[in-house]
Specification:
By secondary structure, the chain is of the alpha/beta class. 37% of the residues lie in helices and 25% in strands. It has a six-stranded mixed β-sheet, sandwiched between helices. A four-stranded antiparallel β-sheet has the order 2-1-4-5. Helix 3 runs parallel beside helix 5 (137-149) and helix 7 (194-200) runs antiparallel to helix 8. It is globular, with a radius of gyration of 18 Å. The protein binds adenosine-5'-triphosphate. Adenosine-5'-triphosphate binds at residues 14, 18, 20, 38, 40-46.
């Protein structure tokens, strides 16, 4: 079956040092939510960064919607929205302008009806004229998601969407992902938490030391390993 993302024998070595990814192959299907689970330094961000065209792989190929990220990067990049780990927003910019700006970066013309739809679906419409510095941490994360969706990507990457946030905010983020699932967006997220993968994802890929150790439907993984065993293995 042809996936919306096809990763084939991907590897990455930073300089002559760390081998961050080793021979990773994975097909991600349209509409699915996949969680990449692994501890610090496992290679999750490197994998996402390569697919998003931010890091050059040492070997292997990645296709997004059939477009090779090396030879056809513009079309590949157009299909992807990235929500980075760090919150980096222009503090004095209004929410709606920040989202409009990102849309413009992709060469897309204005489409305020679509931007309204995105802001409403993320419960940000009432805050559209607020400066981003006035928002709570959860709202800022939702603005980042709105910006990532601004050019109507088919695939959304969420790099550790709940790192360093409290339980309430984590649950809020889970609800946002559920909403995006209903909108038909394919989602790849990274996490340290098995419970988060279980809550949100259709499949889970376990990464450690740059290797994709396994990929399984979430229910199957939970049946086989149970929370305790897997946590111990990853630690
Ligand atoms: P975390 O959960 O802490 O974000 P991660 O699973 O996303 O970790 P990566 O950030 O991909 O892991 O890092 C994988 C390995 O590559 C680590 O050993 C890291 O130190 C190394 N690494 C990452 N970026 C670079 C870089 N720009 N230069 C050199 N080494 C790097």
């Amino acid at each position: 079956m042809t996936g919306i993302i096809e990763i084939d024998h991907l590897s990455k070595q930073y300089g002559s040092g760390t081998k961050a990814l080793s021979d990773v192959s994975l097909t991600i299907n349209e509409g699915e939510i996949i969680a990449l689970l692994g501890p610090n330094g496992a290679g999750k961000t490197t994998l996402i960064s390569i697919i998003c065209g931010l890091v050059v792989p040492t070997g292997g190929t990645v296709r997004v919607g059939g477009h090779d990220i090396r030879t056809d990067w513009r079309a590949a990049r157009r299909m992807i929205g990235l929500v980075p780990q760090e919150i980096a927003l222009e503090p004095f910019e209004k929410v709606i302008n920040s989202v409009r700006f990102t849309r413009g970066l992709y060469g897309e013309g204005p489409d305020d009806a679509y931007i309204e739809q995105v802001l409403r679906s993320l419960a940000l419409w009432d805050k559209r004229d607020a400066a981003t510095k006035e928002l709570s941490g959860g709202m800022k994360r939702r603005v980042l998601i709105a910006k990532a969706l601004a050019h109507r990507p088919k695939v959304l990457f969420l790099d550790e969407p709940t790192a360093g946030v409290d339980v309430a905010l984590r649950r809020e983020m889970w609800q946002v992902v559920e909403q995006l699932r209903r909108d038909g967006v394919t989602i790849i997220l990274t996490t340290h938490y098995l419970e988060e993968a279980e809550e949100m994802a259709d499949r889970v890929g376990v990464i450690n030391h740059g290797q994709l150790l396994l990929v399984k439907p979430t229910a199957e993984l939970m049946d086989e390993f149970g929370k305790k065993t897997l946590t111990i293995e990853l630690d």
